[in-house]
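Note to self: user wants both folds in one dump. Writing first protein now.
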Amino acid sequence: MQIVDATLLPYRLPLTSPWASAVGRWQSRQGWLIRITDQSGRSGHGDAAPLPAAGTETLPQARSWLLSRFARLTGETPTQARSQLPQPGNHPAARCGLETALLDLQSQQQAVPLYELLGGSPGQAIRLNTAIGGLDPQTATRAHTAIAASYATLKLKLGLAPIHTELDLLHQLCDQLPPGVQLRLDANRAWRNAEALQLIEQLNPLPIECLEEPLRHPIGATLAQLQTRARFDLALDESLPGYIQGQQLQSIPVRRIIIKPTCLGGLMPALDLIRLAHRSGIRCVITSTLESSAGIWPLCHLAAAADTLTTPATHGLATSDWFSRNLGAPPAIVDGQVTVGAVPGTGFVPEPEAG
């Protein structure tokens, strides 16, 4: 079934509170909702949500790239259009959004949910972590709220205060955690090598599930030394592009990598990377870069496929509550898990004003 129309709809979505990370702070999220329509009137949707601070192009660059590609879509099938997409390069967020819209439309045409097109199995519940911010007097309250919602993995930002202060607060928090609840720490490249080596020994007795980006200067040999000493996984996030050469994954010095399709150029490049990592014994966690609901739906399908192809992980996709309004309903999270269901496509349904 051929494509007859492609539309680009700008959006700005306010957040319930500022989103802070190692790469910036945001009060709202901007992007482009992509809609691709075929002869039967079916529409596939994708979210082009650039985040330059995370390594993507800018909003104007994404728009320019998308409009240049739209001119080539009419008369093509989604499969043909996908085959003509360039390799991921300087416009990863735009490419991710366009590829997602084409995959959504293709899976609708084939009457299958997207995860099936990606190699996933039906009925899988995808485990999610939830973010509880940094260490402050309210951290324990936020942790208990998350635990009451049945989250067993809580993501915590470190590197925002002096090390000794954070360690004291971290021990206090861990003393209050029930059995089975673990912390996923993100150090935001905060520590010098010597500091990190000392901290690993102090973190080892605690219920830590993973530590992301511990080093200010992430040298491979030092990361490998840290991983040898750590009882838990270390993970590459912002440092990961330095280990990707073309279609190959170079020797990874840690046991885990963070997969962000918006930064990698799409679901299919992300899936290729997951397969490469799996063959090397590296675990993968799929994580949001604060996409709209149009972007979170396909990421959940990717997580379902990844959990079929590799050892199931706890993914970082519970971010929709940060939006005070959205482009459509996000996937429902129940007991810290999401199931994408058997609806053809991604399952995303735009609100009328979103297109």
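First done. Writing the second protein, which came from a different request thread.
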Amino acid sequence: MMVYILHYSEIALKGGNRGFFERVLLNNCRRVLGIGFNVFKDESRIIVEPPAGVDEGAVAERLRKIIGVAAVGVGARCEPTAEAIVEKAVEEARKLNTKQVRFAVEATRSYKKHPYTSLDLRRKVADAVLNELGWVVDLKNPDVEIYVEAGMRNAYVYLRRFKGFGGLPVGSSGRVLSLLSGGVDSAVASWMMMQRGCRIDYLHLHAYRDSNEVMGSKIPKLINKLTEYGIKSRIFLAPFTPFYQRVLNAPPRLELILFRHYLLRVAEKITDKKKLQAIVTGDSLGQVASQTLQNLETAQTGIGKLILRPLIGMPKEAIIQKAREIEVLDIALQEYKDCCSIVSRHPATSVKPETLLSLWDELGLDEAVEETVDAVTVFTAEMDKGLMKLSHLAEQLSPKDD
């Protein structure tokens, strides 16, 4: 029977809390896969037994995107005897139906009471494959690697291995609100906090007449892609019209810093209402004129909620590379009328907090924050029984949309 062998790396370093992280990862795997899959822990690995007729590659792709999974092997299980392991290794290798293959064997033995060592397994498997299939051993540059894992009760053999993203399983580090603009930076920042175990909700302020128009844009596509990693999220959509109407007479060079403060104030209101633990932004120091140290400090003036900036020290090239790796780059680069593009394109680079607060009060922007929060519409995006679902949850922000 074919099985998927899931390995984790960072979780294995945990001490007394390791069981908690493993349970969260197990539950995430079950949610992503849905009905028909048997998911269980076998020593320091997670095993997935699929139903008949599944697309092996598609399932492996789903599994490797689960945050916390460092690698996915696709192979078979057998008894942990040397004879059974050798037989299964030859059987799996024969499925490739090819000759003149250069190969290597990687063997581990977690149960030390077996009457063989890891080196013994490597030699026995290599000899059998060499003699029966005519493959050539090449430890430096193999075409195929045969992986063998011998545990106490079971052994696993596989030739296909897919790299995952590792990290901590989503849901193990609390829940945060990410400011999603629709661009590259905010999408990557959201993903990076997922990799640290955070469950992500999103706040998106838009320039459309209502949320239905937003749902026809690239925003739901971007959220769906991120949900492949994040499993379940809420999306808070609201128009930024209350802000825009009040800043028409503001100095153009101060529009952007006012907007950044307004965005954080709206986010803080939502995090307080929904008991979220932090706000996530896609700020990267010095990347654009508004992201100077002075402006970052000024924008967060009076904000009591923790602000996380996972991209703060990353160069743009690294951010783009990560966006490409997690498959959000093409979506994020699609044309979209985001709020930042509407305000001034030549912002002041060093605004003092007192300047911001004085103008804020003069323009009556506290009222804009309240009006925006009152206009929030809530959606959910989740992986449920192996399927992606994006649903309208409530017309207004309310305690019932948990």
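Dump finished. Worth passing along: The radius of gyration is 26 Å.
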